[in-house]
Amino acid sequence: DSVKVALNAEGATAAQCAETLAELKAVQVSQRYPGALVIGADQMLECEGTWFDKPKDMAGARDHLVAMRGKTHVLPTAACDSLNGARIWHHVAQPRLTARSYSDAFIDHYLATAGTAVLSSVGAYQLEGPGAQLFSQIEGDFFTILGLPLLELLAFLREHNAVLR
């Protein structure tokens, strides 16, 4: 959280913040595991210049959904690979999701249906479930929206013989 606050105060973009957080995670862990290829990832949500955090409770989830209603938000999603404490690869993707103009009644029904699982997502939705009903348009890779630019990561891992070609 302190890294996010500092980067925001410095004028960093949400994408730069996601990349920095992913790198910090990967580098910190890889320093403890010499010779291991370590993956770090992070995701931000930005809507009209505001950075969102995971909602703390269902009221916060409702606030998120109201704030995003009828608007397009970006999900900067970063992955980083580190070896021996140094970043050796990174990728940032920025899917764009447009929330439809859903009603307050829909928000209440959605939250009752989805339950507290929405608290684990920065946008208070999970695209792989009932959260898909929140959107009128989606631009970007499904895996990236879920939190990891998987196809790009797998390509990197194949290049480094970390997974089968």
Write down how many β-strands occur, each being a DSSP E stretch of 2 or more residues: 8
**Proportion of strand residues:** 15-25%
Describe the global form.
globular
Write out the strand line-up for the largest beta sheet, numbering strands in chain order. Answer: 1-5-6
Describe this structure in words.
By secondary structure, this protein is an alpha+beta fold. 38% of the residues lie in helices and 24% in strands. The protein is built from six helices and eight strands, in the order H-H-E-E-E-H-E-E-E-E-H-E-H-H. The chain has helices at 2-9, 14-30, 58-68, 104-114, 142-146, 150-159; strands at 37-43, 45-47, 50-52, 72-74, 77-83, 86-93, 96-99, 135-139. Strands 1-5-6 form a three-stranded antiparallel beta sheet. The chain has a three-stranded antiparallel beta sheet with strand order 4-7-8, with no helix packed on it. The chain has a two-stranded antiparallel ribbon with strand order 2-3. A hairpin with a 2-residue loop joins strand 5 and strand 6. The protein is globular and about 55 Å long.
